[in-house]
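Risk mitigation, structural track. In case the binding assays with 3-iodo-tyrosine fail to produce interpretable data, a predicted complex structure has been prepared as a fallback.
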Amino acid sequence: MKQPNFTPLTGYPEYSEDEMLIRAQGVLDVLKTRRTIRDFSDKPVPRALIETCIAAAGTAPSGANHQPWHFVAISNPDMKREIRIAAEAEEAAFYAGKASQEWLDALEPLGTDTQKPFLETAPWLIAVFAQKRGGERVGQDKKNYYVTESVGIATGMLITALHAAGLGTLTHTPAPMNFLRDICGRPKNEKPFVLMVVGYPAKDAKVPKHALIKKSLGDISTFEE
Ligand code: IYR
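Fallback model:
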C-alpha cells in the first residue's frame, strides 16, 4: 500500500468567536439577497469575472478529489441561439404533456412557460457537465465517485461566487439536455448537469412572490445537544 503524502494545512486563521459570528452573518446577508432571475439585461459581463467564478466553483470538494466537472462558458451568439432553439423544443414537449399535472401545478406560481428568451439575452450561459469517468488530472480514465453530489456542490459554489460578484443567475434544467453535449462538443462520458444563465438582472426584473417563501431555521434544522 502506497503511503499517503501529507503537507501542513494553511488558510485557516483563528478568529475570535465574535468575529466568526460577524463573518458568518455577513455571508448569510449576502446569500439572503440571491434570487433566481429570469429577466436578464444584455449588458456584457467581462470574461475575467466568469473565469474567476468558475475557478471558485473548481475549489469544491469532490469524491476522491477527482473534480468530476467541466464548465463550458458561452457568450457566442450563434451557440446561444442554438441552445435556445433546442431548449425551447424540449420545453414545448414538457409543457404540452410530458410533465404531470402535479408538476405543472407546482410550477404555476413561478409563471414559467415554453419561451426562454433569456438564453439569448443573457451575456453568458455556463453549461455544467458531470464526468462519469476521469481522475484528479485531465486525461485520466478512472471511475469517478459521488459525481452528482460533487457537481452539485461545485454548482452551488458557482452560484454563490456569481451572486457575491453582483451577477444574477438562473439554474436552468431543460429535460433532457443531451443537446448541450453536442452543441458544446463535449465527450460521451460527460452528462449535462445544469445550464446556468448568467448576467445582470434587467432594470425592471421581477421575481415571483412564491420564490420569497423561505423555510425558517427551525424548519430546516434540528439540534441535538
Ligand atoms: N424546465 C422548465 C420547467 C421548470 C421546472 C422546475 I422543477 C422549475 O423549478 C422551473 C421550471 C422551465 O424552465 O420552464
